[in-house]
Amino acid sequence: MNEYIILSAILFSIGAIGVLVRRNALVVFMCVELMLNSCNLALVTFAKQHGNLDGQVAAFFVMVVAAAEVVIGLAIIMTIFRSRRSASVDDASLLKY
Amino acid sequence: MLFWFLAPIMVAAALGVLVVRKAVHAALLLAVVMISLAVLYAALDAPFLFAVQIIVYTGAILMLFLFVVMLVGVDASDSVVETIRGQRVMAIVGGVLLGLVLVLAIGQISLGAVVGMNEANAGGNVQALANVIFSDYVFAFEVTSGLLITAALGAMVLAHRERTTPKPGQAEYAAQRMRDYAATGKHLGPLPSPGVYARSNAVDAAALLPDGTTAESSISRVLAARGTVRSVTGLTDDIDEVQRQLGISMKDQPEGGGKTGAPANTVEDENQDSNQDSNQDWGQIDDEGRGKPT
User: Fold this and answer.
1) Among residues 74-133 of chain B, which lie with CB inside 8 Å of chain A?
2) Any chain A CB within 8 A of the CB of B56?
3) Considering only Cβ atoms within 10 Å of each terminal Cβ, which end of chain A, N or C, has fewer?
4) More confident residue, B162 or A76
């Protein structure tokens, strides 16, 4: 089962790099989703490893929370885009000044 | 086996999310990763999560992403300007280090014998999951419902925009038109429709005015802004080309085809041998049409 965990770690690192590197808020958000998904893979793998269902239940809850998070996050991105005409994370910098 | 087939695809698609310029492509590559993950869930004896992954993640969440990409603008691509110097390189180095540490650490350990889901899934995966969720995790489950309701309300509040002026109805629009007509003499009726020509009746060709100029208002402003408007003078070249192929000129037309027209002779001579027996007019159209697809 090690290979599943390693794949999960690789996907998590790729998602983390994406969050730091990309400037488009939507793509940053997609990379967050990628990280959540890779954690789900680890949870499901450990569920099989240990032969109980707690890991699958945790993955299920992560999915539910991710759905709620996506709804709110995309609504925030839409609101920012409406007022600033930009989806770039660099443009939302009013708190800096 | 399945794993070694899917894992490279998933890693490649995830790397693609990092490098593609357009958000739509990133969303589609993410869909590849998520569907592959669903297959892996099925391979890990989690059929319920397989279905939920497809329905919730690829079905709902990614479609929501695509909706927002459409609203925000498909070609809203990343800027390459770095606001913090060296941030990109540092991020990549840090991320690669994180991945290396994780992979090496996991490579060092041994997870032991796999217990497998046969016992846990004995009465069916969905039934077993329901047993766990509605006994041990019932409080978390109830809190989840509160979270979802809050998220729905929050999305509505965030997406809602207060209208500051009353919505204009048909009567207001009509009155505005009359005022514009009185003030500037703007035409009362609808805008002119785009041009209908022999070779083109598409919306990207402007209508011709009696004086030979084109009516700019007959084309959508979006097409004009994109610069995909077809020039009408280009179309007249097309018409000339068709007439040349048919072997007719404008003054021959009333006499019916180019059989007797003087300019047609050369074309007819070229095709004489192949069209000997057939009706010459139609045969020539076929022949030339096949030879020169436009």
Assistant:
1) 76-79, 81, 83, 87-88, 91-92, 94-96, 98-99, 102-103, 106-107, 109-112, 114-121, 125, 128-129, 132-133
2) yes
3) C
4) A76
Helix orientation angle between B23-43 and B2-19, rounded to the nearest 10 degrees: 160
pLDDT-wise least confident of A4-8, A91-95, B179-183, B279-283: B279-283
Angstrom CA distances, B35 to A30, A82, B9, B52, stand at: 15, 32, 11, 11
Q: What length is written for chain A?
A: 97
- Which pLDDT belongs to residue B199? 64
Crossing angle (nearest 10°) for helices B125-133 and A54-84 = 80
Which pLDDT value is given to residue B198? 63
Could you tell me which chain A residue has the CA closest to the CA of B96? A13
Candidates B17, B116, B148; nearest CB to A31 = B17
Flag if B159 and A79 touch (Cβ within 8 Å).
yes
Q: Write the residue in B14, B79, B110 that is nearest to A11 by C-beta.
A: B14
Q: Which residues of chain B have pLDDT under 70?
A: 73-82, 197-201, 233-235, 238-239, 248-294
* pTM > 0.90: no
